[in-house]
Structures are given as structure tokens and as C-alpha cells.
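Notebook entry, structure prediction.
Reason for the run: the old model in the group folder had no record of what sequence produced it. Starting over properly, with the input documented here first.
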Amino acid sequence: MTTEGKEGWRGGAALLGGVVAVGLLATSRQYLPFVDAMSPSGRMLFSLGFLLLAGLVAGQGAAMIGLPRLTGYLAAGLLFGPGGVAIVGREQVTSMALLNALALALIALQAGAEFTTDMLRRGLRSLTWGSAAQVLVVLPGMALQGDRILAWELERGAAFRRAVSRGKGVWL
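New structure, fully documented this time:
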């Protein structure tokens, strides 16, 4: 057996162990009553640790099937976040706002690190056509809808000013 085969086997075993760990942590909310009885900061730390582990495992799984690790990170967030099975609830997500901003910056950094100049040269034509299509389709569409949105905002603002002037005797 070659070294490459051993590494592949070890990587698969590590991935399986990670999946088992993520599964145990995901079900801990049902079977371990102290998880829900934690303080808000304790729940935030549990959620952070869980998301880091789930992202690591999903990133490794994505890399094993030839996808960028970033795809696994995003999939873990979507699966376990408030929009998915909600292992991490909305209150934990809002309490981690600063960490979310940092994570987004790191994700953007990693996404940018995966681009090479050769990759950009090969995809230059499709990037150019995609950008042109967005400018030619999205921009006019937004301009057409902009009048409606602006009219709605002006109408809503006028209604607000009338309500304030009747209630407080002040005209804005």
C-alpha cells in the first residue's frame, strides 16, 4: 500500500470520526438537558464550537470529493443554522455578530486565495460575458423598479409625517 493510499484511508477515518462527533453534538440538545439550561454566553460558545467542528468536517468532506473547502463551510452553516435544522438558533447568530463579520472576512479571503492567474485567464471570457449580462439585465431592471420603490418610500414617508404632525403637532 502506498503512502497516498494510507493518507486517503486516514483522511476518510478522520472524516468519519468528525461526522460522528458532529452528529453527537447535534443530538446533544435532545438528550443532554444541561445544553438548553446554559447561560446565553454558554450557548453561544457551544454554538461556536459546534459550527467550527461542523465546518471543519464539511470542508474536509468537500475537499475529498474535489470541491473547495469553502463549499463545505457554507453547507455546514446552511444546514445547521437557523435556516436549516436550527442547531444554532437565531439568538446565537445575533449574539455572534462580530464573529460572523470576522468569519465572512475569512471566507472571502479563502475564496480569493483559491483563484490563480491561470484560472482567471481561462475564465476571462465567461467573467466578461457574465458581468456584461448583469449590467445589461439587472441594472435596467432595477431602474424600472426603482421608480416604484421610490414612489412607495415617498408615500410611506408622507404618511409618517402626517401621523407625527397629528399626534405631536410637529411637521417634519
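Summary: Residues 1-7 have pLDDT under 50 and may be disordered.
The old model has been moved to the deprecated folder.
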